[in-house]
């Protein structure tokens, strides 16, 4: 049973997840993921200044202050590496350290001599209090996040160009600087609206983790944005629900833990880039290579007149083939086992012949056409066969090739 | 300004700040050169679960278990981030971001779940309490010293020893890892030991001075040194000096001028130095570069004005002064003031300059036509640009080339 309060929080966190996921994928593709962290930290001086100037803890005063310093921080991070010899990474870290330090210094000023006490607000902004979200706050958050997600979706073509080939973009008349500026503003707005809900550090997490997760599943920009938004929303929802189970579970960190759960799950299981898939493919490949080695060995023996070769000689001895590769030969029907001896089937002979032929042709081509030392040739025979079947360039050696 | 040295409590704060800053600046240089300056911030957040677990397991607020926990999670963080980057092919920054935010959230959840009753809030972990340096003391061989002074000096000592032992090796790894591998250096082990040094420095400084100071001091002094220096050794020295200066001025202003948080003020001071370096650095600062550019453009404008007026006066045409508010207007003003241009024709030194320039122009045009084979309608504009850059030795070369080119023709 979901309480109405939890429902309010759910709306807020899920739209926030979508928005952060979309903006984050833009950052990840620019290799600037940690910018979000720096900008989140640079809100602090703005929050305190907003409080000192307005004299109250109103949402709008603090938000405006935060937005201004965040934009200044964003401008510094992107301009410093251009105007001076500063690496982008150092610029990010420097802005983070200096702005947060300034925020802390201002904060202790505000606590000691400012108007009224300003101690309660700090934790609120550093760690966020999603569970204490009011209905109005949640609606503002949801509205802003939806609006920004719409902007990102509408401008996705321009963002795509600016992420991958900004030179091409400016040659077609798009204003790349304006687009970069829009990205910065969207990012700053996202960070500022999500601060009260999830806090400084975890805002950065919401922007970094979902796109990094989506990157495991796809190589396409739009699909990546969609998956990233989906994961953002999913972690927002599951985190909120999980944290509503126990009183002492803080919502923000649980949302982040959910999204990092998705991250590590995808790291393992994603079909193309996942670690398990990679490992399996690698294993399969080396097994097939080993299988071909066995087949060729048996084929050579067959040509010398030995129809049967002792299994021992394949497994042990100078061949030292892997038993699982041998089993693969048998299950594919290339090799028959007769007692302790092995025999090539007719299919096995064809397979081995193809492999031997391919290798010969490959070596000849490398020698003739590419002039590569044949001792340096080490390519998977399977690859060679694929290459050869698609391009029969070897049967006619090019006439203009001079023998050296 | 000397009062800070006379008050023992203040002096201890200053000393701790200085020592911590120097250690951070030293490792900061290495991290900056490897594009990993954000590691300081990542470690600052990533140690939280280690601290909390250390606390939960021992149930005491002793330093030792928390220190060990923090070290373990700092190492876990840096190795996990490396592993994600190298093996799972995640972008380096994103890998760091994923790992440290995950660890931080884990730490916060642990705090909320298990240590509600005890006062172990994130604030004391995040900020450190350099202001209380004077009050937490331990006895070492009969002398009472502030505890954080001891931990910070040990960290600095380890840093200096490590830097001396691996100076060359780390330098090679920073600039050219491929060369390091070909020299059969154990690159992986070296990088790992550097990460361990960073973790040790960061963790021991958190406890003494708070994480903000560590984050800022790993990034900012090394960045300033990167702007100012072209050599690794100088970078190290400049980074340490900048660190020391910001520690001193930051502490001083936080204590005596505006009464605020010491680490925050040190970070702000360092930021001020960064600002100064970006604008005033002698070779790359924005102002010196702009000044050099303006001087150069002024020189070009002056030479052009002189040459133009000479040509015009030869043809008997009237020379018109350029618009006042422009580079050439300024150049014109200067020429008139220095008496090199009088009533529209170059005089004295001005005439010499104009003649040399015209000679350079014709030499270059002939060189471009004869030697480079440029068509005659393409000679004018490059010659106008290049004439300002030809110096004496180049002119001699061009003249020689001119003569030798002429000889076979005649």
Q: Can you give the mean pLDDT of chain B?
A: 85
CATH homology superfamily of the largest domain in chain A: ABC transporter involved in vitamin B12 uptake, BtuC
What is the helix content of chain B? over 70%
Tally of separate helices of chain B:
19
Number of domains of chain A: 2
Please tell me the total number of domains of chain B: 2
Q: What's a concise summary of this model?
A:
The complex is a heterodimer of chains A (404) and B (410). With 404 residues, chain A is mainly alpha-helical.
Report on the structure:
The complex is a heterodimer of chains A (about 400) and B (about 400). Chain A is mostly helical and about 400 residues long. Chain A has helices at about 5-30, 35-40, 45-55, 60-85, 90-115, 120-125, 135-155, 155-165, 165-170, 175-215, 220-245, 250-270, 275-305, 310-315, 325-330, 345-370, 380-390, and strands spanning about 310, 335-340, 340-345. Chain A folds into two domains: about 5-275, Orthogonal Bundle (ABC transporter involved in vitamin B12 uptake, BtuC), CATH 1.10.3470; about 280-395, Orthogonal Bundle (Arc Repressor Mutant, subunit A). Chain A is elongated. The model of chain A is unreliable at about 395-404 (pLDDT under 50). In chain B, the strands form two sheets. In chain B, strands 1-2 form a two-stranded antiparallel sheet. Chain B has 19 helices and four strands. Chain B has about 400 residues and is an all-alpha fold. In chain B, helix 2 (about 10-35) crosses helix 12 (about 210-230), helix 15 packs across helix 16 (about 325-335) and helix 17 packs across helix 19. The chains are: A mainly alpha (about 400), B mainly alpha (about 400).
């Amino acid at each position: 049973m979901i309480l109405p309060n939890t429902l309010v929080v759910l709306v807020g966190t899920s739209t926030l997840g979508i928005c952060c996921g979309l903006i984050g994928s833009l950052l990840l593709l620019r290799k600037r993921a940690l910018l979000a962290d720096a900008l989140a930290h640079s809100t602090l001086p703005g929050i305190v200044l907003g409080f000192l100037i307005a004299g109250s803890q109103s949402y709008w005063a603090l938000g405006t202050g935060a937005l201004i310093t965040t934009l200044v921080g964003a401008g510094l991070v992107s301009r410093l590496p251009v105007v001076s010899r500063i690496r982008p990474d150092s610029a990010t870290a420097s802005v983070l350290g200096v702005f947060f330090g300034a925020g802390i210094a201002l904060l202790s000023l505000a606590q000691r001599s400012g108007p009224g006490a300003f101690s309660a607000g700090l934790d609120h902004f550093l760690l966020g209090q999603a569970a204490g979200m009011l209905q109005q706050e949640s609606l503002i958050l949801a509205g802003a996040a939806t609006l920004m997600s719409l902007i990102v979706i509408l401008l996705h073509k321009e963002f795509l160009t600016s992420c991958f080939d900004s030179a091409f973009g400016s040659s077609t008349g798009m204003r790349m600087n304006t687009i970069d500026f829009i990205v910065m503003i969207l990012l700053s707005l996202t960070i500022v609206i999500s601060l009260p809900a999830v806090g400084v550090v975890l805002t950065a997490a919401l922007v970094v983790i979902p796109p990094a997760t989506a990157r495991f599943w796809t190589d396409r920009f739009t699909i990546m944005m969609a998956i990233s938004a989906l994961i953002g929303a999913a972690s927002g929802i599951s985190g909120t629900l999980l944290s509503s189970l126990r009183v002492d579970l803080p919502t923000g960190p649980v949302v982040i833990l959910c999204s990092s759960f998705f991250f590590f799950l995808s790291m393992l299981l994603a079909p193309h880039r996942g670690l398990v898939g990679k490992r399996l493919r690698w294993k399969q490949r080396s097994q097939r290579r080993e299988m071909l080695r066995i087949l060729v060995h048996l084929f050579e023996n067959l040509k010398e007149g030995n129809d049967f070769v002792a299994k021992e000689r394949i497994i042990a001895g100078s061949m030292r083939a892997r038993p699982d590769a041998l089993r693969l030969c048998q299950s594919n029907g290339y090799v028959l086992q007769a007692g302790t001896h092995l025999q090539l089937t007719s299919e096995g002979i064809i397979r081995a012949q193809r492999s031997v032929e391919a290798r010969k042709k490959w070596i000849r081509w490398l020698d003739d056409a590419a002039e590569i030392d044949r001792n340096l040739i080490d390519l998977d025979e399977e690859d060679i066969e694929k290459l050869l079947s698609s391009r029969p360039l070897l049967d006619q050696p090019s006439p203009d090739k001079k023998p050296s | 300004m000397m009062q800070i040295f006379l008050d023992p409590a203040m002096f201890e704060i200053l000393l701790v700040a200085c020592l911590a800053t120097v250690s951070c600046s030293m490792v900061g240089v290495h991290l900056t050169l490897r594009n990993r300056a954000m590691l300081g911030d990542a470690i600052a957040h990533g140690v939280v679960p280690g601290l909390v677990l250390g606390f939960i397991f021992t149930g005491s607020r002793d330093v030792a278990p928390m220190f060990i926990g923090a070290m373990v999670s700092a190492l876990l963080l840096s190795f996990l981030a490396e592993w994600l980057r190298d093996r799972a092919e995640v972008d380096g920054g994103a890998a760091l971001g994923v790992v440290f935010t995950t660890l931080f959230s884990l730490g916060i959840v642990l705090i909320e779940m298990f240590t509600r009753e005890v006062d172990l809030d994130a604030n004391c972990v995040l900020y450190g309490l350099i202001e209380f340096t004077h009050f937490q003391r331990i006895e070492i061989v009969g002398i009472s010293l502030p505890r954080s002074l001891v931990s910070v000096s040990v960290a600095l000592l380890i840093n200096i020893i490590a830097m001396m032992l691996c100076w060359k090796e780390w330098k090679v790894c920073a600039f050219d890892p491929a060369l390091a591998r070909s020299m059969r250096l154990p690159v992986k082990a070296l990088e790992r030991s550097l990460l361990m040094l960073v973790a040790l420095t960061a963790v021991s400084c958190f406890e003494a001075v708070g994480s903000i100071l560590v984050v800022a001091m790993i990034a900012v002094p090394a960045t300033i040194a990167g702007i100012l220096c072209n050599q690794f050794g100088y970078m190290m020295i400049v980074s340490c000096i900048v660190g020391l200066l910001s520690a001193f001025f930051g502490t001083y202003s936080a204590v005596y001028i505006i009464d605020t948080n010491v680490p925050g003020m040190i970070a702000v001071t360092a930021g001020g130095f960064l600002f100064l370096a970006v604008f005033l650095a002698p070779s790359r600062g924005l102002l010196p570069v702009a000044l050099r550019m303006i001087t150069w453009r002024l020189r070009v404008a002056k030479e052009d004005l002189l040459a133009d007026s000479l040509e015009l006066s030869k043809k008997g045409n009237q020379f018109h002064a350029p618009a006042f508010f422009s580079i050439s207007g300024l150049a014109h003003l200067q020429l008139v003031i220095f008496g090199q241009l009088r009533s529209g024709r170059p005089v004295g030194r001005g005439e010499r300059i104009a003649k040399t320039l015209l000679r350079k122009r014709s030499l270059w045009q002939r060189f471009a036509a004869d030697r480079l084979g440029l068509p005659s309608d393409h000679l004018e504009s490059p010659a106008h640009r290049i004439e300002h850059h030809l110096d004496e030795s180049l002119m001699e070369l061009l003249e020689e080339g001119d003569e030798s080119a002429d000889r076979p023709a005649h």
